């Protein structure tokens, strides 16, 4: 199975993406058609709008992915696709496209979990060394995933309410920042100071779970109260205080997890893994964990993309994981 070529699909949210991946680690092409502009005026992703865009984009993305990789369907070894978790109507477009191509060209079909995909984005930088831990932080997920060996994923901690990215997007709205707000809040945070001392929920609990809805409410209440008494607050300090609270909890829980589950690598993945504050903090903290290497998914692969799905898909393909034409989208798929 050397030199295997995987055509992969990702349509779980608001990016239509198709990639060609060689041996699970080399990106021959990675086409990402983003729909962000269509969702911005609604302040978040509108599922029906996302599905319609996926339908319009997917065929062109497949053609571009094959052309840019200079391969044809005959060169491919398998087709991999995200089948959950995500928006059901959005997932269905990728699943249907992948099933159709697999059936038409007699190729094996490999079903991929979106979170496994985010984690395997790391493999596009360097081989994953097990046991490994992943902190996956995105608009829909905040999870600590322990991987004792290849193909095994154990969620040891997760958010009890909002995902970290969701909290960024919601407080961004209060600061009049367009969706998705994470990047701009991150930039503002670097110009301010942590002066508001927002709550760090569950930070002292001995589990690995997170909670961000109290922080979000504290932020929103602070701004509304100031509006009522016509006080003006520093946007930079608000952003810095919010970011510090998020990063503190993520870093503290991750350190606790690393103490209980010693690993060779800590992988930081998901859209919020692009956060400068979080990358810097984990880089600092990991100096105390001499046997654990920090693997930061590159900024260009933190957001949703099909390259990461092809990388996880290749691992599953080697492990013999297959789906048939009955494969369905599973919006609340777990490991
Ligand atoms: O993984 P992703 O592309 O989509 C999901 O699967 O959710 O993550 C998107 C999320 C959004 O909430 C966005 O605001 C956030 O990632 N994000 C950031 C940064 N860049 C993107 N959050 C904080 N800091 C950033 N630099
Ligand atoms: Zn994602």
TrEMBL record:
<feature type="binding site">
    <location>
        <position position="118"/>
    </location>
    <ligand>
        <name>Fe cation</name>
    </ligand>
</feature>
<feature type="binding site">
    <location>
        <begin position="136"/>
        <end position="140"/>
    </location>
    <ligand>
        <name>substrate</name>
    </ligand>
</feature>
<feature type="domain" description="Gcp-like">
    <location>
        <begin position="26"/>
        <end position="310"/>
    </location>
</feature>
<feature type="binding site">
    <location>
        <position position="304"/>
    </location>
    <ligand>
        <name>Fe cation</name>
    </ligand>
</feature>
<dbReference type="InterPro" id="IPR017861">
    <property type="entry name" value="KAE1/TsaD"/>
</dbReference>
<keyword id="KW-0408">Iron</keyword>
<dbReference type="InterPro" id="IPR043129">
    <property type="entry name" value="ATPase_NBD"/>
</dbReference>
<feature type="binding site">
    <location>
        <position position="186"/>
    </location>
    <ligand>
        <name>substrate</name>
    </ligand>
</feature>
<dbReference type="GO" id="GO:0002949">
    <property type="term" value="P:tRNA threonylcarbamoyladenosine modification"/>
</dbReference>
<feature type="binding site">
    <location>
        <position position="275"/>
    </location>
    <ligand>
        <name>substrate</name>
    </ligand>
</feature>
<dbReference type="GO" id="GO:0061711">
    <property type="term" value="F:tRNA N(6)-L-threonylcarbamoyladenine synthase activity"/>
</dbReference>
<keyword id="KW-0963">Cytoplasm</keyword>
<feature type="binding site">
    <location>
        <position position="114"/>
    </location>
    <ligand>
        <name>Fe cation</name>
    </ligand>
</feature>
<keyword id="KW-0479">Metal-binding</keyword>
<dbReference type="GO" id="GO:0005506">
    <property type="term" value="F:iron ion binding"/>
</dbReference>
<protein>
    <recommendedName>
        <fullName>tRNA N6-adenosine threonylcarbamoyltransferase</fullName>
        <ecNumber>2.3.1.234</ecNumber>
    </recommendedName>
</protein>
<comment type="function">
    <text>Required for the formation of a threonylcarbamoyl group on adenosine at position 37 (t(6)A37) in tRNAs that read codons beginning with adenine. Is involved in the transfer of the threonylcarbamoyl moiety of threonylcarbamoyl-AMP (TC-AMP) to the N6 group of A37, together with TsaE and TsaB. TsaD likely plays a direct catalytic role in this reaction.</text>
</comment>
<dbReference type="InterPro" id="IPR017860">
    <property type="entry name" value="Peptidase_M22_CS"/>
</dbReference>
<dbReference type="InterPro" id="IPR000905">
    <property type="entry name" value="Gcp-like_dom"/>
</dbReference>
<comment type="similarity">
    <text>Belongs to the KAE1 / TsaD family.</text>
</comment>
<feature type="binding site">
    <location>
        <position position="169"/>
    </location>
    <ligand>
        <name>substrate</name>
    </ligand>
</feature>
<dbReference type="GO" id="GO:0005737">
    <property type="term" value="C:cytoplasm"/>
</dbReference>
<keyword id="KW-0819">tRNA processing</keyword>
<feature type="binding site">
    <location>
        <position position="182"/>
    </location>
    <ligand>
        <name>substrate</name>
    </ligand>
</feature>
<keyword id="KW-0808">Transferase</keyword>
<dbReference type="Pfam" id="PF00814">
    <property type="entry name" value="TsaD"/>
</dbReference>
<keyword id="KW-0012">Acyltransferase</keyword>
<dbReference type="InterPro" id="IPR022450">
    <property type="entry name" value="TsaD"/>
</dbReference>
